[in-house]
Amino acid sequence: MKALAGYLVRKLGECRGKRRLWLEGQFLAKGDFQPGSRFDVESASSCLTLRRADQGCRLVSSRERRGKTLPIIDISNDMIAQTFGNAADVVIMIGDGEIVVRLRASERAANSRVNRLLAKLASGTALSVGSVSHGGGVLSLALHRGFADGGIATHLAFANEIREDLAAQAEAVNPTWQSTAALVAPMQELAFDHEAMAMLGEVDVLEAGIPCQGASLSGRAKNAIAKPEDHPDVGHLIAAFIAILARVNPAVLVFENVPPYQGSASAAILRTTLRERGYEVIELLLDGAEFNALEHRKRYCLVAISKGLQVVQIDPQLPEKRARTLGEVLAHVPDESEAWKDVPYLHAKQVRDEASGKGFAMQLVDAQSPRVGTIGKGYAKWRSTEPLVKGNQTYPSKLRLLTPAEHAAVKGIPAVLVDGLPATTAHELLGQSVLFEPFRVLGKAIADALNGARRSAVAAMPATSRITRPSANLDLFEGAA
To answer: What is the pLDDT of residues 328-340, one digit of tens each?
Structure first.
């Protein structure tokens, strides 16, 4: 079809026990399907094509309405059911002398991603993963290891990150990067670069943690905004993210943010879009305390899995609870080290905050501390409410920041991800990241669910169609059990 003259979503009907396609009126005339003209019908790949042909086997009929003769096409036979199965409605595209009838774009996308994923699971092929707002790839690595724990290999196909230094660090040290496309650009620029997006192709899993400056309570207060979407730099990013999501068509989405994001307009738009696009949406709150992390950070997580996989629940298994102390990860820093500082201005600020009733207090920790509070992106700035280590024997008034390696450890993040970085950059990478263990466990839970979907799909196949040769690495086939 060279030019599109009309586009219509139409429900399929039924006539005498057969599925029916009924088209009528000026919509047909746009393609020169006039009363009395003839056409042929071809069926292929869930698509019907009607082409005008002088000697065609079918005739455009007509009826009178309000003094006008309207063209009618009425097809009611086994071809409709064979082509469209149980689909409730179809898309009709009309051009000059041609009508193409297809499944809706959302349904075609859903069928494509489910079939692609099940085929890869059956063959033991690594699932392709896309990452948006990649940072240093903490989420990518956690999910990669969790999927591996569940017997599913993954490959990071592309990573989008606005900061070139973080992308370069990830490419250098993050083991998920293997022939990975580095997309160093604002996501809103990438999302609407149609040529670049066309070259990416589709992925099986998409993971993202778009910036939270507008959603966090501190971010709203700092920027004096009423809702996350008012943030001038990141409030609009859900639109770009959904554009990327639609283009790469993953079977699985893992999306994380701060807990207040769950009640935002952006989250409402995302979950509704996902449901309309054929996904089951599962929402979780992952709490570091429940996974024995020293940093008790909570994170909102939305998991979307294509409905064709019939997964309606994800069940991350919590570890056995155990007591921990910060001393497990603290390094020895000599008393004479420049890392120890006197910070009288922070003590003075605490006094002022207490006097004004703000409720802010310094967070002083030592080897006996059972936890630390949330450590953010700006930790290197010596912010008063983030953890400061005490315990210098020679100069007891002095405090220090956690080292990057200690910061990584309280989050459970492999220290290799910040190897070689300046301390300020390392703290930025870690401070904007997720805790590692909750998302590794989540990855394992998703892998278990996908393996269950694969087994169900195999069980539903005719026995003569089942593949029974097991993969060399994964138990992917029912016949191998």
So the answer is: 999 999 999 999 9
At which residue do the structure tokens 């893992």 appear? 254
Strand order in the sheet with 58-59: 6-11, 89-95, 98-103, 47-52, 38-43, 58-59
Distance between CA 405 and CA 414 in Å, rounded? 9
Q: What's this model's pTM, rounded to 2 decimal places?
A: 0.89
Average pLDDT, the chain: 90
Distance CA 278, CA 105 (A): 11
Residue 436 buriedness (CB in 10 A; 0-12 / 13-18 / 19+): buried
